[in-house]
Predict the structure of Protoheme IX farnesyltransferase.
Amino acid sequence: MIGTDVVYRNENFLQVIKSYYQLTKPRIIPLLLITTAASMWIASNGEVNSFKLFITLLGGTFAAASAQVMNCIYDRDIDYEMLRTRTRPIPSGRVRSRHALIFAFILGFLSFSLFVAYINLLSGLLAMSGIVFYMLVYTHFLKRNSSQNIVIGGAAGSIPPLVGWAAVTGDLSWAPWILFTIIFLWTPPHFWALALMLKDDYAQVDVPMMPVVEGEESTVHQIWLYTLLVIPCTFLLIYSTETLGFLYGMSALILGVMFAQKTWLLKQNPLDKSLARSLFKFSILYLMLLCAAMVVDSLPITHKVITILGNNLNIFANYIWP
């Protein structure tokens, strides 16, 4: 843990607000909210209630922020050792651990209260389960003890679609679990690409990320395998549950081909950090565009347009080949 050499500094009010904001790792949260929103749009057949959407995303933001603040508290020792993370609020002495813990509990309480008061109990319990799984299973048991940490721990980041679906329907069918699986399988290629870039940092603090323990070639091989798993899984929303249709299917196909190409290039050059960076950035874009395709495909107007186009194509085909 952090030694006594950390001097806690007084700051003005705006600097304090900024420090607590940084504790939540705000760059991570939007991607979680995008998957939540996509799930809500699908569950509501493209006609999501705006108030319910707002409260669910707000509650999800508080839950994710709570988990990230707790992660900052737990990892303050390794954050202090790495130059890249030493300037974070806790290791730099801008926020005390006990104050951060109070902040995390307040965020968690606000999240659960919003879900229970305005949405339903199931969505609130799912949001809290994400915090517990992220902290207990990933951060405490796996992160510093297993090279498979991000594989199993990825389940925490896969919970938001379950929350979104439960917020709309009050239950969980097959479709949200397919969304859960898509994100679960997407997480290793996404995070291991980042780990390839930060291999030396993880090795410095003895965190057994895959590139540190198994090496770059083995890691890239695993990235390739998970990519080959996640791409066909995206089509289950069409062929298994018939939740989505043609527009989403074409988007998933195009994005899947691009994802596979990026991964294949890295597989041919596992030591190239620029390719790892490119894959990491594209993996974010991939999930965002995939979720956007889910939303657009779920809209009633999309169904009408595709139906009209389909009818016109049939008329044209019958005219050409009577």
Observations:
- Residues 273-298 form the longest helix (26 residues).
- The chain has two domains: 17-171, 173-322.
